[in-house]
Design brief:
The chain is of the alpha+beta class. It is 44% helix and 19% strand.
């Protein structure tokens, strides 16, 4: 029976048809907990996405990595079930339950069939409200984290990202690896994980989305059952993170025939009126298509890299515009010069009518393709909540894209792009750079 249900759940996750329209309902439970719901009763399956805002940014001083380790240990047993018993109960229900943490949120994803909903929700409730944090489980997961940290210490991409973050955000949590350091992780105790859970998992920073075979009334009861026993409030949320990197080039010596290059500057807030203009600007400058300017100039015309891209990163407490590439050591200097030149060209001249029209067509046409299954929709809805968007954003987003003009992009590019302020981090042994 479990094999049949697992097969069905896989089919649901990966083969749902695209929806012509996403209708989002706001649901408030009898206990006052709110969630967003997209009903779809065609298949007896529901996806539930949960986020507690604050995430690893709520680590206490000297305990970096506590929230990450706590989240990774939540599924290692709850109530009277140890890790093995919890896994067997989850698998026996053909349910999917996973936990994670990042700089802005502790996240939980759950997927369950309607016939198993009550038992799956009870299993999830136990994990959320009464995790065991058995010492053996804590030590096992700690070992996995330490192994990952050791791997990152010799990974040039990880080194580059960590170095740029430290330059950009300093002592703010965004400035350090949220997995912690080998020393901080090794020192964490079971009591530290219990405290990390209390700091992060509270109702005052809860975001929930459900998509699938569930009614508003059923969801309301589910919300109170899952979260009713959590504390009302958690720790104060992190403060704002201000970009501090001075600009220029920092080289981190690493023995390799090629260098990893990351670069960035301060970005734009998600709620800024100019966000959509900046979004289109970035797509034209260094977005995901081969027609992006940086791809054209650095790869297509000169063959200096296999790929280069930039992206806006409007996090909850700080924002940045980040780019990355890899290239032979001899090509690092010319590549940096080209990136700065394209930054300057965009800041001075903006974009052409043809670039803007093609980018609008791509962005508006590709947007509906994101909504290709219950799980993906639930994740998008929680992300919208975290960004402070309203449920009708799905319907209005493409109109906001279409409304952006060339003048808007030129104004925003002049405001946002600072070639001299670009901070480059190069991990490798680039020719002519120190």
């Amino acid at each position: 029976m479990a094999i049949r249900l697992a097969t069905l759940i896989g089919a649901v996750l990966f083969a749902l048809p695209l929806r012509a329209e996403i209708s989002v309902q706001e649901v408030t439970s009898p206990g006052g907990i709110t969630a967003w719901l997209v009903e779809d009763h065609e298949i007896p399956f529901t996806a539930l996405e949960i986020a507690f805002q604050g995430g690893t940014g709520l680590d206490l001083p000297g305990e970096r990595g506590a929230v990450n380790l706590m989240a990774a240990t939540l599924e290692e047993g709850s109530g009277d079930m140890d890790a093995q018993a919890f896994a067997e109960a989850r698998d026996g229900l053909a349910a999917g339950i996973s936990f994670g943490a990042n700089q802005d949120a502790v996240s939980i994803s759950a997927r369950f069939l309607t016939e198993n909903r009550d038992r799956a929700v009870e299993l999830l409730r136990q994990a959320i409200t009464s995790p065991r944090f058995d010492q053996s489980a804590v030590d096992r997961v700690r070992g996995q984290v330490l192994s990952n940290l050791a791997s990152d210490a010799t990974d040039p991409s990880a080194i580059a990202g960590d170095t740029l973050n430290a330059l950009a955000f300093g002592k703010h949590p965004y400035g350090s690896d949220d997995s912690g350091t080998p020393e901080s992780v090794a020192a964490l105790t079971r009591d530290d994980l219990i405290e990390a859970k209390a700091r992060t998992m509270a109702r005052d920073r809860l975001h929930v989305a459900a998509v699938g075979d569930i009614t508003p009334d059923e969801l309301g009861k589910l919300l109170d059952r899952l979260f009713g026993d959590l504390p009302d409030t958690g720790a104060p949320l992190p403060g704002r993170a201000t970009w501090q990197a001075p600009g220029g080039v920092k080289v981190v010596d690493f023995a390799s025939p090629q260098s990893i290059v990351v670069f960035g500057q301060s970005g734009i807030r998600r709620d800024d009126p100019d966000f959509f203009a900046a979004y289109l600007m970035n797509e034209i400058l260094g977005g995901s298509r081969f027609s992006a300017r940086l791809m054209t100039e650095v790869r297509e015309k000169r063959g200096l890299t296999y790929g280069i891209g930039t992206y806006l990163l409007p996090m909850a407490y700080g924002e940045s515009l980040i780019g990355q590439m890899a290239t032979a050591n001899a090509n690092v200097g010319p590549s940096i010069d080209l990136i700065r030149a394209e930054w300057s060209r965009m800041a001075k001249d903006g974009v052409s009518a043809e670039e803007l029209a093609a980018t609008k067509t791509y962005l508006t046409g590709s947007y509906p393709l994101r909504f290709d299954g219950n799980s993906q929709i639930a994740e998008i809805l929680v992300g919208m909540q975290m960004d402070g968007l309203s449920p009708d954003y799905i319907k209005t987003r493409n109109a906001k894209i279409e409304a952006v003009t060339q003048d808007d992009i030129k104004r925003v590019a002049a405001r946002l792009l600072t070639p001299d302020g670009l901070q480059f981090v190069v991990v490798g042994r680039p020719d002519g750079l120190k």
